[in-house]
Amino acid sequence: MIPLCSPQDARRPTALALGSFDGLHAGHRRVIAQAIAGAAAVPTVVSFWPHPREVLFGEARLRLDLPSEKLELLQPLGIEQLVLVPFTPELAQLSAEAFVNTVLLDTLKAERITVGANFRFGKNRGGDADLLRQVAAARGVEVLVTEIVEDDDGRMSSSRIRGCLERGDLDTARTLLGRSYRFQGRVVRGRGLGRELGWPTANLQVDGRKFLPALGVYAAWAWVDGNDQPLAAVMNLGPQPTVDPTSPSAVEVHLLDRTIELEGRQLTVEPVKRLRGQQRFSGLEELSAQIGRDADQARSLLSVQTGVG
Questions:
Q1: Can you name the residues that pair with 44 across neighbouring β-strands?
Q2: Nearest to 45 by CA among 65, 15, 25
Q3: pTM of the shown model
Q4: Which of 40, 235, 266, 287 is the most buried (most CB within 10 A)?
């Protein structure tokens, strides 16, 4: 696994791609490819953490990929380290020119820098690709600017992928990501109601900064503790309107035709298809019957899958 490090701890000199790269879609991958093509320096991705809008405006910014997940995605692209620049109020006051000189050139010893054409940085977002090119050129460092990637439906963007997930449109999200969307969490003890109904579920504790798809019931694949063997599952994402309408949203996963003790273990989940939205039933018997139908539908759908991921 490639390392996750601060600017001070990074290997250098670097050939770096600068940006948030949330989702690592085709546009992001093009920026990264330009950074490392033929470079002798350490292939590096540089991002801010947390998101600047969280620090400046208190906005919650959920991520398609958390930093730990991004490490696995960057390594096959040829990247050797992910550098997270801590975004603080003090950094927010740093001019664009000072950021380039102190962080990118002095600390990271960048020998090549690539960004997307719409990248903005520095105090009040005063820096753009042209300014970056000017400041870096004064110190003999090459800057490459990658144009925005578009398809027939418009600009490739992280927000477009989030929109697909918000609608439960996993197929389009998969196409835009170039891979299947996944999340993970640790299994924690629940109330045991699913077991009483004959449908034991693993209750996942998911990082609150992770972007999750639309509420509802899904056919899904699951992996236990990073094992290579995918397990067919049905997943409920959301509150429990029949059992406890006041309960917060939860992620519950039932493994189909498997009995495995999961408490305390790490579960990776790949939702494949949204089967239905949230419903409120007249009672537990009707709920149990519907779960059975959901399980049958998920089992049928997953059995014809030619592969996962």
A1: 16, 81
A2: 15
A3: 0.89
A4: 235
